Each structure stands twice: as C-alpha cells, then as structure tokens.
Amino acid sequence: GQGEPERAAPDVGIQLFQLPWVSIADECEQNIGPAGFSWVLTSPPQEHIVGDEWWVSYQPVSHQIESRLGTRDEFADMVQRCGDAGVDVIADAVINHMTGQDAPGVGWAGSSYEHYSYPGSFEFDDFHHCGLTPYDDIVDYGSREQVQTCELVNLADLDTSAPAVRARLGAYLDDLLSLGVAGFRIDAAKHMAADDVAAIVGRLPEGTRILNEVIRGPLEPIQPEEYTGSGEVFEFSYARDLAPQFESGLFSDPDLSDERPMHVPADRAIVFVDNHDTERGEAGLTYRDGDLYLLANVLMLADDYGTPVVYSGYAFSDRDAGPPAESDGTVTDSTCGAASAGDLVTDGERTCVQTWPGIVGMLDWRAVVGDAPRMPGVSAGDAYGFERDGRGVVAVNVGDEEIVLEIPTALPSGDYCDVVAASACDGADITVADGVASVTVPPRAAVAAHLGSRVP
Ligand code: AAO
C-alpha cells in the first residue's frame, strides 16, 4: 500500500527582522503556521532610543515592552495568535548593554536616560568601566577582558556579574515569559562571561529555549563552545562553509559523522544562510543573489545538522536604513503577497522568504525525511545532491546547463514530483529505478522529492 508517509513537525525557525507584532501575528496565521515553521525569532521588543535606523532596537532605554514594532498588548496578542497557529515566539533579548548615546535623551516610550543612567533600572555602578582602552571601547577581540568588560561600539556595558543587574534582567525575561514566549536569542552573548549568561538564564523555567549569539572568530579566545552549557548557539561556521560552494560550484560532503570541524555539536547548533548582521556584512549569499540564495536555503533545510533558521528581512541599499515606517516612527504593518526570489529591487520591500514555494516545499520535505541520516552525496559538473536515507533526495545545480544527477537511494522505484519548483508536477523530473534516483536539474535550480511526492 502507498498511503501518506509519516511526518514529524520539523524544528525550523524563521527570523522576521524588524517586522511589527501585528504583521507577525498575521504572518503566523496566513503563511508561517501553514508552511510548518515551528518558531519565529522577533526583533528586540523593549523600549529603545528614538531613530529611523533598524539598529535603534539594539539600544535599550528600559525593559518596558513598548517599541516601534508594537505595544505590549500587540506583542501579547501576537504570541497568542502565533501559538494558536502552532508557532512559538522567540524574542531577541538585548541584555548585555543599554544605549550607546553620549547625550542624554528620551526613549520611544518616554523614559529619560543618560549613557550610564536609566532611572528605575540601572545607574553608574551597574555598568562596567573597563579602563583598558580609550573611551572604554572594545578594540581587540583577542582580549577576553576587553570583549567582556569594555563597550561594544560604545554601548554602555552592564555588569552582568552583579546580583542586582542579573535580577533586573531576569525580571525582564520573566515578564516576556509571562506573555507566553518560548525562549530568547541572547544578543551579544560573547560580550558576557559564559557564567553570567548561565546564571541569568539558569533560573528560567525548564524548557525555555536559549539561542546564544556568539559570532565565531576562529582566532579569538572566546569560542561558541563556552556557551553550549546554557543553550543553543548560532553556528557561524555553517554559513561560511556553505556559501562558497554555491559561488564555486564545487560541492563536497561535510563530515557525515556527528562532528564537523569548527562547529558546535549538532544538537546545540542553530544554522542559517544569513542573518540581519551578515546580510550587511560577511554573508556570501543574501536575497540579492536570487536563485542561488534559494538553493542555499534548500540545501540547509535538507541537511541533518543543527536547527535551521530561515531569514526574512527587507531590501536595502543603505546598511543603516530601517524598515518602512509611519510619520510617528511606528514601523508599517506589512504582510506578504506573492513575492519570489529575484524580483526584490525596491528598498524597503520585504523579502517574504517564508512564502517562497521552494522554502515551503522543503519544510514539508524535512517533515517527511525526519531523522533519516544524510548519505554521501554525488557531484556532476555544477550539480550536487544527496539522499536522506530512504526518505528523500535533493539536488542543486548552480551552473548554466541542465544536469542529470544519479543519486544512489533507498527510495522505492517510481516517478516522483519535485517539491521545490512552483510548477505543476508531470512526474518526469525524478525517476527512481534499481536504487538510483535520476534527477534532472535545470540551470540554477534545486529539485527535491520525498516518500510522499511519488506519483501514484
Ligand atoms: C550603532 C552604530 C555605531 C554606534 C552604536 C552606538 O552603528 O556606530 O557606535 O550604534 O550608538 C547593531 C548594529 C550596530 C549598532 C548597534 C547598536 O549592528 O551597527 O551600532 O546595533 O544600535 C560584534 C558582536 C556581535 C554583534 C556584532 C554587530 O560580537 O554580538 O558585533 N551582533 C549583535 C546584533 C547586532 C547589534 C548588536 C549585537 C548590539 O546582532 O545587530 O548591533 O546589540 C568579529 C567578531 C564579532 C563581532 C564582529 C563585528 O566578527 O568576531 O564578535 O561582532 O567582528 O565587529 C569574520 C571573522 C569574525 C568577524 C566577522 C565580522 O568572519 O571571522 O570574527 O568577520 O563580520
């Protein structure tokens, strides 16, 4: 008998960069829940400095949940509606620092502040004053002491070893948990001693998800492995290894045992093609790369290493430019239409990656393959593919010629539909016979099939 194969809801996140809470709630119901994403990562929800740049979100003025992305009530409503759609919410928690402002000011929700004074929250002695560098700014990432006690780009650095500071930050995280969030991205975790992070998050309820942002600097003293005790870690090596293969067309299997060099263990790793920092910096592939960017996401979603997070932001030509906003500064509500890779040319236009048919198809593919191991891959010219043992095959072609790839597989013989392309299935793209999948991969395209996409 044929029947539908078992599906296990995959652990896949989507980072919704600078998207307002009301829009995230709609997206959860319309696109993200139905596609099968299990969580969204929001931008920081706390009160911040006033300004048009996206990065004002990363300069907390207080820990009230009031921001240009929405009010406390809107945040709570989003968590509720996403939850009803089967989607957890993970909030970006900026707890390493407060603002980087030298002049006194008033925050988004009306709170007054100075560089080292946040009335009702933190005063001068709650901050590090490292005394190691000019202006107490981090100069040398080779110095653990500078990285963890001086200021990251002039941001007033909280002394997270102090019990009172830990308690206040803990109260903020508790407050977000009371609204139903499932966990936190810990922004700039590298800039807090691993013991401090462990102390702050260690008292949260069991099951609270912690995703530490620790950018791997291969020559630096502070490594992501130090933070795996308090949660998962964004593994920057993953994107750094993936992107060059799409540029060169030279693909190779990663170490298919459980260990990859310069990678945290698979069960601790959050992997991504790009994020809001790397698309403005080191990322080899971003939305600007159109098809190749989709292909990289397909290969990431097909992999058996780590927990993938897909990135959804907006087009920009100025790295500082914030998202489209109303005249009062509130970020404009926007939900996704039928955007597709490659036609993102207008600054401010949302990339809406969560709606791309190839992404949605691969989420279902991932649900079907489950924990089937990744098998050794096959290359031919600019194409590469592999199977997840007996459950699915995937192939990418970064070249200009169509390529037929022969992938050894334990899938049952027959014709299969491709789940990446939006086009209707004619069953001619993937044929399995005698333990080999013959996959016809068009130029700059990905093709994938799974147990459930077999033509009856
Ligand atoms: C803004 C202005 C500043 C101003 C400041 C205060 O731009 O001029 O001084 O306000 O008024 C974001 C923006 C910043 C913004 C800030 C505050 O990106 O531009 O500053 O908000 O509004 C380091 C940290 C890492 C951090 C990253 C940006 O370790 O945690 O810098 N990321 C997070 C957020 C980010 C946010 C903040 C933290 C602050 O995701 O959006 O900033 O809340 C090396 C190190 C890394 C280091 C990078 C960059 O990385 O290893 O630790 O990240 O350098 O300095 C190779 C190397 C790798 C290297 C990488 C760099 O691959 O292998 O080691 O290249 O691309």
UniProtKB/TrEMBL annotation:
Question: Which metal ions or organic cofactors does this protein require, according to UniProt?
Answer: Ca(2+)
User: Which of UniProt's keywords are assigned here?
Assistant: Calcium, Carbohydrate metabolism, Glycosidase, Hydrolase, Metal-binding, Signal
Enzymatic reactions: Endohydrolysis of (1->4)-alpha-D-glucosidic linkages in polysaccharides containing three or more (1->4)-alpha-linked D-glucose units
Q: Which SMART domains match?
A: Aamy, Aamy_C
Q: Where is the Glycosyl hydrolase family 13 catalytic domain?
A: 11-366
EC number, UniProt record: 3.2.1.1
Q: Name one Pfam family in it.
A: Alpha-amylase
Q: Domain of life here?
A: Bacteria
Keyword RNA-binding (UniProt)? no
Q: Which InterPro entries match?
A: A-amylase/branching_C, A-amylase_C, Alpha_amylase, GH, GH13_cat_dom, Glyco_hydro_b
What positions does the domain Alpha-amylase C-terminal occupy? 378-454
Main enzyme class: hydrolase
Q: Which family does it belong to?
A: Belongs to the glycosyl hydrolase 13 family.
> Mind telling me which PANTHER family this protein's record contains?
ALPHA-AMYLASE
Q: What is this protein called?
A: Alpha-amylase
